Amino acid sequence: MRLNEVLDVIFRWAHLVAGIMWIGNSMLWNWMDRNLEKATERGRLSQGKIFMVHSGAFYDVEKKLLEPGELPPMVHWFKWQNGFTWMTGIALLVVVYFMNGAAFLIDPSVAAIDPAVAISISLGSLFVGWIIYDGLWSSYGEQHPRVATALSIAMLFGSIFAFSQVFSGRAAYIQTGVLIGTLMTGNVWMCIVPSQRSLIAATKSGKEQDETLSIRAKQRSIHNNYFTFPLLFIMLSNHFPGAYSHHLNWLVLIAVMVGGAGVRHFMNTRYLGEGRQRPVAVWLAPAFGMGGIALAGLLVITRLGEVPIRKLDQPVPFARAQEIINKRCLPCHSVTPRDPAWPVAPNNVVFDLPLQIEIMAPRIYERSVKTKSMPLNNKTLMSLDERAELGNWIENGARLK
Ligand code: HEC
């Protein structure tokens, strides 16, 4: 394995583990909060209790504030799960999208920009994104959350559209994910953790906690809650060229994000506390409805206005199809690739032998005729005529003779 790929493995693996710990934790906290049983007899500082069974014993957990001086010496914090998810995510962005001549970041058919420019836009948008978002919510948004929410959503959707106009489709999706992940991480480290610090300091000194910090932390954790499902889709999105390489890829992503956040919303409203739940019809049915919006994005929008593949009068023989593949695909998809960026055939997909081409015909059709996401960023300059010819051969049964 090349160093590049080994780094990819290390960071991706660590990213996944840290991400599972972070999001898993956060969903468990959310669930506990919503299922607390209020225990008024426990005094004004108690916010509720929950009784759980797991790993061979019972957990008797109480959420409460403390009297001054009651703080035990050991307090567990939950911030490094997020910290490591973000750091490994940025490392992965560098390894996969910035290195290798930014081959995955730039698609000349979208915008023929220089790698240095593309990388600067990618990193710059993270800084600018955080500054605008945090600025909005640290001042105006605290008093006017509805307007700030509408503005934030509009700006987020605007960024998705902008990313889709400068980066390859695949990178536009990931860039959106990195932006959201960066906002979430900023929320944790710049708002939620400081609020917890102030809570601890206030408890020690017996003073009231700073109200603004705690309101801010609450708002930001709600944002993070809604960001999770869309972000998880984006993390998986590079498996779905049908979505990211469509000419309306930005609209597809917006639909999936609205649907994902909507599902999260109705999961949030499921519990009423005290172990009570809303009727299934009130939360599960609308959750399915929101899932339907995401699905419609994937099923319907990806069918809109596809550039029709030109129909040919004459059936194209295999010899011609193979000639095209040899020229446009073999530089990467061969046992001995010629493209220095791919010393091993990507995804182990090779087209050296006629049988290999025949077996892969449906994927060849999907990637190079329908979605046109292959050749990668059209590095080998495949023409539309060649796509039509290859499509014709496959539509006529992909026969070798
Ligand atoms: C510049 C290198 C390069 C060229 C040229 C190239 N590919 Fe790919 N191909 C890749 C990379 C990288 C991947 C893995 C990432 C991905 O799936 O987007 C891949 C993955 C694939 C896959 C497997 C994933 C799937 O969706 O099934 C298929 C099939 C494929 N390419 C078809 C083609 C065809 C057909 C051509 C020629 C018309 C072609 N490729 C030309 C780099 C290339």
Q: Determine the number of helices (DSSP H or I, runs of at least 4 residues).
A: 14
Strand pairing plus helix content: what structural class? mainly alpha
Gap from first CA to last CA: 38 Å
Strand content: 5-15%
Order of helices and strands: HEEHHHHHHHHEEHHHHH
Shape: elongated
Number of distinct beta strands: 4
> What small molecules does this complex bind?
heme C
Strand order of the largest sheet: 1-2
- Count of spatially separate domains: 2
Quaternary organisation of the protein chains: single chain
Mean pLDDT over the residues: 93
Indicate the percent of residues in helices. 55-70%
Largest sheet: 2 strands, antiparallel
Nearest-angstrom radius of gyration? 26 Å
Which runs of at least 5 residues are low in confidence (pLDDT < 50)?
Answer: none
Description:
- The protein has helices at 3-34, 80-102, 115-138, 140-143, 145-166, 169-205, 211-236, 241-244, 249-268, 280-299, 318-328, 354-359, 361-370, 384-395, and strands spanning 46-54, 57-64, 271-273, 276-277.
- It has 401 residues and is mainly α.
- The strands form 2 sheets. The chain has a two-stranded antiparallel sheet with strand order 1-2. It has a two-stranded antiparallel ribbon with strand order 3-4.
- Strand 3 and strand 4 (276-277) form a beta hairpin.
- Helix 11 crosses helix 14.
- The two termini are 38 Å apart.
- The mean pLDDT is 93.
- Heme C binds next to helix 13.
